[in-house]
Description:
mainly beta, 6-stranded antiparallel barrel, two-stranded antiparallel sheet, 0% helix
Amino acid sequence: MRLLRKNMQRLKYALYEEKIPVYETDDEGNIVVDVIDGEEVPRIIDTVSGYGEVVDFIGNISFSGGEAEASVYGVSTADYDCKLVMPKGAIPITETSLIFQNNEPVYDSQGNLKRNSADYQVARIAPYVQSTVYLLKRIVHNG
């Protein structure tokens, strides 16, 4: 499956990570830093699971549907909203990754990415010889 450049668009992804640092903050919400060997180092008090750095990439999102695709890759078309088609090995996303198409990433007060600011989460991955198809499920945005 060849990917035409004219079908590509600017997108972003974020990978799920097990250990994202939580920094100590002062009463005003500023991160507390220690000076070690002349360098300012933020004081880490804990780690949490969440999403890491948001990365820009160019990909091909197509909206699918119809009876001909009723059960593609062993998944009903009701289980996903669109497909992302990429050259094989182009991006390191997994089934826990987030995809941003129209929305901009939003962060909480600790600087951690809010999951519901993404447009999609990867629902399934289908590798081919020269490309990979990622089935994407729309994330419902509350309020």
